[in-house]
Design goal:
Elements (H helix, E strand, L loop, with lengths): L1 H45 L12 H7 L1 H6 L9 H23 L3 H22 L5 H4 L10 H19 L6 H13 L1
Family: Belongs to the DoxX family.
Protein name: DoxX family protein
Main location: membrane
Length: 187
Amino acid sequence: MNALISLHNAAFDLIERAGNWLMPLFARFTFAAVLLIYYWNSGLTKLGDGLFGVLSPSIGAYSQIFPKQLEAAGYDVSQLGVFHWAVVMAGTYAEFILPLLIVIGFATRLASLGMIGFVVMQSLTDVYGHGATDAKTLGAWFDRASDSTIMDQRLLWVFVLVVLVVKGAGALSVDALLRRRQDDASA
């Protein structure tokens, strides 16, 4: 029996060591495969027209982020203030920058924390701003259905991001390259 336990421990110790290298890489791959284009496309819908669209968000940006405030302003964006503009621009830029940082593995822990905050705010806006409270969309944990957009999917998104906050970007990343350069310079 001891030989079997030793064999088990040896095999799974090897898997655990490989997992320390593979888990962050696989988490970043999963994020890229599932969420990179989703967020970039969402960011594109928020950009205004023309060259200066990166500074002038579309009305769709305001309707996605501040639906009730935009409705109260009669869908006249000029009735909203600098605060609304700044939040819309920060959210729009975050949809481009944070996913890119995660995929290349640069400032991965901070970018992942930022994305967790983004997913939380996105979910709260969907529920309270857009009224996404129907059972199919909102869902519930510990039920028989596993396909709700908010409770189920976004929990899985956050889990992938938590792996990156805890483990970092892994060996194949800009973070690891910078760490190795720093270690070489200090040695």
